[in-house]
Amino acid sequence: MKRRVPRVMVIVIVTVALLALFILTALPGTTRSRLGDFFGNIFDPLTTAFNKAIDGVGGFFTAVRDNRDLKIRIGELEDEVGRLNREIVDNKEKVKAYEELKEALNLVTRFDDSKVLGSVVLNESLGPYHDLMRIKAGRKHGLDASVISYPVVDRHSALVGRVHSSETYSSKVLPLLHEAFSVSARVDGSYRSTFRVRGDVLLREQGLCLGDNIPEGTPLKVGDLIVTSGEGGIFPGGIPIGEVVSLQSSEDGKIVTCSIKPTCDFDSLSYVFVIVENEHES
Q1: Among 45, 69, 115, 140, which residue's CB has the most CB atoms within a 10 Å radius?
Q2: Angle separating helix axes 34-110 and 7-26, nearest 10 degrees
């Protein structure tokens, strides 16, 4: 009795043979036998499909890799944009600090015969009636208001007021708009006559102060800059006080009073400078 070859073995042998012929026809430049050419003609469409499938799979993985590289590059660009934005913000802060330092230097140069003491304003606002403001500088810093009062200006050298009283580590400043404040003044560029600038109960609600005791013939008009005269022994001459916004005249046409808008912006005031005469330094 003949021994039958297992059916599975036959299938395996046929499959291997077909696979070998398939590979033979797929390889470029391979010398084909007649049998190979015969089967190659049969398997050419399959070979083409196989190659396309390989190309498609390769293209897929290439696209995936390219997409991953693109995401990495986008992340790097976003980090670079963030760094540049931070540099822009830092540079703006540096420019602002430089401008403030330059203004402070100009202020110190302007009052080079005196000691200029910078201080933070402790109370955020002056309140509805422009009451006393408190600054972070007191007797420990050389301020003793029981001996003498000190002029206070902002970083633009505009008049803020004067030191009213001093404690160990802080002082109170009487603002220009307060009704108890007064200073001798003149028109900027004119030395012919002086008059008084003071706070006024009615005008302070408008953010204005009052000029009175104006001598007859004083060359005064709307838009004039009013500065300290230097008289009185407290305020050096030439400190900007404010701009004339209106004139009040008597029946005979003589200028009696004027309303003045302070140069100092009290609403945004956060830092001030106290002018201390050299002979009063501690």
Answers
A1: 115
A2: 60
User: What are the pLDDT digits (tens) for 154-173?
Assistant: 988 899 999 999 999 999 99
**Contact assessment for residue 107 and residue 153, using Cβ atoms and an 8 Å cutoff:** yes
Beta bridge mates, 248: 257
> Which residues make Cβ contacts (< 8 Å) with residue 92, sequence separation at least 6?
none
> Cα separation of 27 and 22, whole Å?
9
d(CA 56, CA 162): 85
Distance of alpha carbon 57 from the chain centroid? 54
Q: What is the mean pLDDT of residues 126-150?
A: 81
Radius of gyration (Cα) for the chain, nearest Å?
A: 45
- How far apart, in whole angstroms, are the C-alpha atoms of residue 282 and residue 266? 30
Say which DSSP state 205 is in.
Answer: G
> What is the per-residue DSSP string for 98-110?
HHHHHHHHHHHHH
Task: State yes or no: pLDDT of 281 exceeds 50.
Answer: no
Phi and psi of 280, rounded to 5°?
-105, 10
3-state secondary structure of 133: strand
Whose structure tokens read 């002979």? 279
Please tell me the predicted confidence (pLDDT) of residue 14.
Answer: 67
Nearest to 145 by CA among 137, 133, 155, 157: 137
